[in-house]
Amino acid sequence: MELEALNRTLFLAVNADASSLPAAIEAASLIAVFAILIVPLLLCRDWLRGERGQRETALLALATILLALGLNQLIGLFLFLPRPFAIPLGHTFLASATDTSFPSDHATVLFAAVASYGAGRRWIAASMLSVVALAVSWARLYLGVHMPLDIVGAVVTSLIAVGIAEVVMRWLGGPLLSFGEAVYRPLFAPLIKLGWIRR
């Protein structure tokens, strides 16, 4: 009960209300919905323009994200926690499904990417993604669609997933990377010839 009380207290401290500036709510809405797109854009950039090491990190990130989201689905089968507006608690400024709130899938994708790029020692990318992950987490609390524990859960599943993904990639990373390169090279041959993407 003390943990739940803390969860609610922290949520209400961050959550917007009727006195919040419309511009702040609009900015938070854009962050909450669209900032996550930086992940697929970064993965595509690293795969198409990066060196082999960058492609390995992108592949690790993709595996980690998929594993983390899978863990979220598994958790959802056994643990249903309602979103704040379903309790009801606080104020809601963003339309959202009424599925389980824990863990946050948006936060999971971003923190899984952070963990992967950190594991790949891509510190600049990891730092950039950390800022985005924190911004999205704040925005989804501010707009009333997640609770603080949902974000903590996302961090935990991301760390578990990257640990599993690193083990899997030690065995399958090389073959998967070679297969991926063999598939994409014929598809993007004209762009490779022009030097727009790497071979």
Automatic annotation (TrEMBL):
Pfam family, one: PAP2
Residues in Phosphatidic acid phosphatase type 2/haloperoxidase domain copies: 57-169
Record's keyword terms, sorted: Membrane, Transmembrane, Transmembrane helix
Source organism: Labrys miyagiensis
Bilayer-spanning residue ranges: 20-45, 57-81, 123-143, 150-172
SUPFAM superfamilies hit by this protein: Acid phosphatase/Vanadium-dependent haloperoxidase
PANTHER family reported for this sequence: AT30094P, SPHINGOSINE-1-PHOSPHATE PHOSPHOHYDROLASE
Name of the molecule in the record: Undecaprenyl-diphosphatase
Superkingdom, natural source: Bacteria
